Amino acid sequence: MSKFKFKKNTNTPEVSTASLPDIVFMLLFFFMTVTVMKDDTLKVVNELPNASEIKKLEKKDRIITIYIGKPVEKFEETQGEQPKIQMDDRFVNLAEFGSRVLEAINERPEHLRGFITISLKVDKKASMGLVDDVKEELRKINALKINYTTYEGDAYKNLD
Fold first, then answer.
1. Is the dihedral of CA 25, 26, 32, 35 positive or negative?
2. What is d(CA 23, CA 33) in angstroms, rounded to the nearest whole number?
3. By the 8 A CB rule, do 111 and 58 touch?
4. 3-class DSSP state of 50
5. Integer Cα distance of 79 and 50 in angstroms
6. Hey, what domains does the chain have and what are their CATH numbers?
7. Pairing of strands 63-69, 117-122
8. What does the pLDDT read at residue 9?
9. CB 89 within 8 A of CB 41
């Protein structure tokens, strides 16, 4: 009776993969722009103390990080077991410390140089004498904006 017969297609249509390369490249570019590479390789032991009152530093381009602590096992033979100062990926003597900090400040754009914060990441077992010497060198070069990096927590845990 009916002139036209409809075929029932039992096969599911194939998924089009024409836009797949576009999606892959969009994801690739997204992760390339968002990913931040790790700057420094720690060469000193850096177990930070706890503090109850902390504030997060927002603008990372205005921070110079200085690590103070005992050299890790790999560098104990060459550097000894006394606490050392690390800037970037190298150890710095106290005598050349001020000039290295000034170099790091001068590498920044001129409009940011007045807003530079020196962030000290000091191992909780490091001697306070070395920290005082570092602070004295920073005073000599007029780098007076100093921050101590800590973990949030109970400060009494530092006593053990």
1. negative
2. 16
3. no
4. strand
5. 28
6. 50-159 (3.30.420)
7. parallel
8. 66
9. yes
Instruction: Indicate the SS3 state at residue 146.
Output: strand
For residue 30, the one-letter residue type is F
What phi and psi, each to the nearest 5 degrees, are found at residue 30?
A: -60, -50
Select from 147, 100, 91, 141 the least CA-distant residue to 120.
147
Per residue in 27-54, pLDDT (tens digit) is 999 999 888 776 678 899 999 999 988 8
> Contact at 8 Å (CB) between 65 and 40?
yes
Predicted TM-score of the model (pTM): 0.75
Integer Cα distance of 137 and 131 in angstroms: 10
pLDDT, one tens digit per residue, over 65-105 is: 999 999 999 999 999 989 999 998 899 999 999 999 999 99
Strands 84-87 and 146-148: unpaired
**Beta strands of 1-160 (E only): which ranges?**
50-51, 63-69, 84-87, 90-92, 117-122, 146-148, 151-152
Per-residue DSSP letter, 107: T
